[in-house]
Amino acid sequence: MNILAIDTSTYVMGVAILRDGIPAGEMRTHLKKNHSIRLMPAIRALFEEVDMKPAELDRIVVSEGPGSYTGVRIGVTTAKTMAWALNRPVIGVSSMEMLAQNGRYFNGVISPFYDARRGQVFTGLYRSMSNGIIRESEDRITLHDGWLKALKEQGEPVLCVSPDMEKHKELIQQELGDLAIIGTEIDALPSPLELARIGMRKDVVTTAHEFSPNYLRLAEAEAKWLEKIKDEKKR
Amino acid sequence: MSEKDTLIVGIETSCDETAVAVVKNGREILSNVVSSQIESHKRFGGVVPEIASRHHVEQVTVIIEAAMTEADVTFAEVDAIAVTEGPGLVGALLVGVNAAKALAFAVDKPLIGVHHIAGHIYANHIVEELTFPLLTLVVSGGHTELVYMEEHGSYEVIGETRDDAVGEAYDKVARTIGLPYPGGPHIDRLAAEGEPVITFPRSWLEPGSYDFSFSGLKSSVINTLHNAKQRGESWTNEQIAASFQASVIEVLVGKTMGAAKEKQVKRVLLAGGVAANKGLRAALTKACEAEGLRLTIPPLKLCTDNAAMIAAAGTVKWKQGRFADDRLNGHSGLELN
C-alpha cells in the first residue's frame, strides 16, 4: 500500500511516504515557520525524492487534531483535497494517537499532550500492548493538574511526551513525582512515519467530503452563544 | 471546446462564502457555485473568523465537485487553478489557498494567486468586455476603493477607506436601529420608502483626496438618535435609513465622478457586494449618464463574493504567464498591484 501522511497539528511539520507499506521517506522539521507556505513544497519534494506520482497513492493519512486549529486545517485541507482529486480515501488519525507511538516500548501508560493554553492540555491515555498502542481513555481537553492528579492515583509509571514539555515539566514532576517519565526532545516530536503506519492499519476510511478536523473544542464564539441560549432557557 | 480556449477553475474563501467556478476564456461562466455560511453567522451578528474557517474546511471539496460537475469538464481540460490569496480573513483564505495548492499538485496544473478586489473588478469583464482606461468603485463589507486601470491586470488604487468599509457602516447603522444582520439590504429597502430629512455629515476629507471615511458618519447617526431620544423626539427608521444612505451615496458618487474626470476615463465600473444597493446603482447611473460615461454594473450574483470573478481575473494572469508556486500563502492585507 502506498501512503502519504501529513501532520501539521503543532509547529512540527511532518510529511512521510510509505511505498508498499514500507517507509520510503519522511521530512520533519521543528521550526516556528509557516505551514501554509512550507507544506506543499515539502510534499512535492518528497514525491520527487522517492520517485512517486500522486496517482500511485492508495490512501492519504492526516493528523485530524487536536492541535493548533489553523495548523490542523492546513493539513486536513491539503489531505482531503488531494484525496478528492485523486479519488482516494482519506484517513484521519488522532494527533494524540500519533504522538503516543513514541512510547511503543514503554511499560506503563502513555500520556501524550499538546498545550491548550490557560492551564489546559489536549491529551489522552494510551498503553503499549503486543498488538500495538491501545487507547485507554478518550482524547480530551482538560486542566493539566487535574489530569495528572488522576494519573497519580493509578499508581503506574506515566510516560509524558509532548513538543510543549518545557512549559509543563515542572507541573508534571510536582504532581507525578517518581511516576513521571519524561522522554527526550526527540521522543517529544510526532512522527509522520508513525502516522502513516497507523493510517495503513485503519479499516475506517472516509471520503473527502465527509472529512473534517477533530478540534475537541468549540470555537469560542459558539461556546459563548450556547451558554447564552442555555441561560435564556433557564429564565 | 476549441484548442485555443482557456479553462480556469476559480476558488474563493476569503470571508463567509465557499465558492468555486469554472470559467471559459475569462468571460463565459460554465459553473459558479457559492455556498454561503450566512445562516450560521447570523446568530453572532457578524462573521466569526474561526467558524468561517471551520465551515470552509467542511465544504471545500463538496463545492469543487459541484462546480466541476455543473461545468461538465474534467481536470484534463482545465488550464490552471486560480485562488483568492487575499485580502480577507486569513484563516478562511488559508483553506482556499491550501485546497488550490493540493488540487493543482494532484492534477498537475499551474496555480494562480488572485487578489480579491481584482476579482470583483473582473466580475464586470464577464458582463461586458473591459476597455481601458477605466475606473472602478469597489464597495463591499470589507472594502471601499477607487481603482484606476490602464490595461488588463494593472491596478492603481487612487482612493480607499481610512476606517470602516461602506458595507461595515451599513451593518453598524442597521444594528443601531434594530435591523437584523446583514443590515445593508434592509437599509436600502427602508431608504427607498423614506425621505432624507436628517442632514448627516458628508465626509469629503481634504480637497483632491479620493479616500473615504465612514466612521464619523456612523457616530453621527448614533449620536443624533441618542440626542433625539433624550429630547423625546423620534424619526422613523425609513427617515434614518434614507438620510444615512443619502450621505453615503453623495460621497461615493461625488468622489467617483471627480476621479473619473481627473483620470479622464470614459468607462466606470461598480463592483463588490454593496453594488447590489439600489440607491447607489440609481445615483451612479444618473451621474454617469450626465457625464457621458459608460457604466457597467454586474448582476447581483456577480457583485457578492463568488469564484467566477476569481477565475476571470485569474485568466488575465494566465495569459500574462503570472503563475504562483507551491509557496503561495493567504494574506489578510494583500496590496492590489
UniProtKB/TrEMBL annotation, chain A:
It comes from the Bacteria. GO terms for cellular component: cytosol. Signal peptide: none annotated. It holds the Pfam family TsaD. Keywords: Transferase. One of its GO terms (biological process) is tRNA threonylcarbamoyladenosine modification. One of its GO terms (molecular function) is transferase activity. Gene3D superfamilies: 3.30.420.40. This is tRNA (Adenosine(37)-N6)-threonylcarbamoyltransferase complex dimerization subunit type 1 TsaB. It comes from Salipaludibacillus neizhouensis. The gene is tsaB.
From TrEMBL, chain B:
InterPro entries: ATPase_NBD, Gcp-like_dom, KAE1/TsaD, TsaD. Its main location: cytoplasm. It catalyses: L-threonylcarbamoyladenylate + adenosine(37) in tRNA = N(6)-L-threonylcarbamoyladenosine(37) in tRNA + AMP + H(+). It is found in: Cytoplasm. Fe cation binds at H116, H120, D305. Transmembrane segments: none annotated. Its EC number is 2.3.1.234. GO terms for molecular function: iron ion binding; tRNA N(6)-L-threonylcarbamoyladenine synthase activity. GO terms for cellular component: cytoplasm. PANTHER family: TRNA N6-ADENOSINE THREONYLCARBAMOYLTRANSFERASE, TRNA N6-ADENOSINE THREONYLCARBAMOYLTRANSFERASE, MITOCHONDRIAL. HAMAP family: TsaD. This is tRNA N6-adenosine threonylcarbamoyltransferase. The lineage of its organism: Bacteria, Bacillati, Bacillota, Bacilli, Bacillales. The gene is tsaD.
